[in-house]
Here is the input.
Amino acid sequence: MQRTRAFPKGYLAARQGKSGARDRYWPMMMLAVAVAVAVAVAVLMPRSAEAGDDDVELARRLFSQGHILPLEQLLTRAQSVRSGIPVEVELHAEDDPHRYVYEIEMLDREGAVWSIAFDAKTGQLIDLDSDED
Here is the structure.
């Protein structure tokens, strides 16, 4: 019986820090991390404090009404703009109460933190800024 691998052979070598495999499989590893963060956010958000519960309910309502895109979609777009690990995600209203913005902070391979802002309804990139001093 032939055994199949869940991940490519080089991916496991990259996870262990072997040879140049880390550079080749960096995008796959970062996508796996992004998915893990998205799942953690989805699981942990309902258990937040009361004020946070209001934010979660607002996000659920806005999503169900079609006013905002799903967070997973914006995390994928953030990865395409600046690959790295998402370390913080915020959804907030702009001056116009009907316009919301996702702000995603990404930690890149060099250790720099990037703030990426997207229109929550269209997914259009609004701003890309390094948080470095």
